[in-house]
Specification:
This protein is an alpha+beta fold and about 200 residues long. Helix content is about 40%, strand content about 10%. The chain is built from seven helices and four strands. The strands form two sheets. The protein has a two-stranded antiparallel sheet. A two-stranded antiparallel ribbon has the order 2-3. A hairpin with a 7-residue loop joins strand 2 and strand 3. The protein starts with 8 loop residues before the first helix and ends with a helix. The mean pLDDT is about 90.
């Protein structure tokens, strides 16, 4: 395993209240990380692995560099880590055991079954944090509380108001309660918010 010398993504988010010093820099830096995370999640899922505990603390920063061009921000190269709760997606294609970290759990995780789409919900939580510096819903402390978010909407913080409309659409597409309607690998990479970044990389 490569050494990640720059800590985890949560530390970067805390330092700046998001990934940048203003809305434009946070959004640009977040796109760069988001592209990497989509590809990392796709790599796992193609191999029938579900992470089940994707969170900012489990995304390590291996290196950083200044962004080229006019936007002044730092671009982070990241790696997904801590596969302690990961599992193989079984032949039935669904799982029954609730697990993960509160505040990142998909709402379906406390129901009878779930599948790899829970990782995209967690990705949406991480992305909101990168953009806004906070969780998208009121915090809870026990997995059994996760269904409370079904009665909430995404926090409309001042930072959220400054996110571009296409950026909001991307985040909201990940934080969809119905997993059948949630963005996944292909739809993420084809989304207008990421298409330019995907081509650049």
């Amino acid at each position: 395993m490569d050494l990640a010398r720059e800590g985890d993504l949560r530390e970067k988010i805390k330092r700046n209240v998001g990934l940048g010093t203003d809305a434009a820099s946070s959004e640009h830096a977040s796109k760069h990380v988001a592209c990497q995370l989509v590809r990392g999640i796709r790599y796992m899922h193609q191999r029938r692995v579900i992470h089940r505990d994707l969170k900012a603390e489990n995304i390590l920063v291996s290196s950083s560099r200044p962004a080229p061009g006019d936007i002044r921000c730092t671009l982070y190269e990241v790696k997904i880590t801590d596969f302690g709760l990961s599992t193989w997606l079984d032949i039935v294609g669904e799982l029954l055991t609730p697990c993960g970290t509160p505040n990142y759990l998909a709402p379906e995780i406390m129901k009878d079954n779930y599948d790899e789409r829970i990782d995209f919900w967690s990705f949406g939580v991480v992305l909101y944090m990168m953009l806004c510096g906070d969780f998208p819903f009121d915090q809870y402390h026990h997995p059994s509380d996760v269904e409370r978010i079904l009665h909430q909407s995404i926090k409309k913080s001042e930072s959220w108001q400054q996110v571009s409309e296409v950026g909001k659409d991307f985040v909201c597409g990940l934080l969809v309660f119905d997993p059948d309607q949630r963005l996944a690998h292909g739809s993420c990479l084809r989304h207008p918010w990421l298409t330019g970044m995907a081509l650049e990389e």
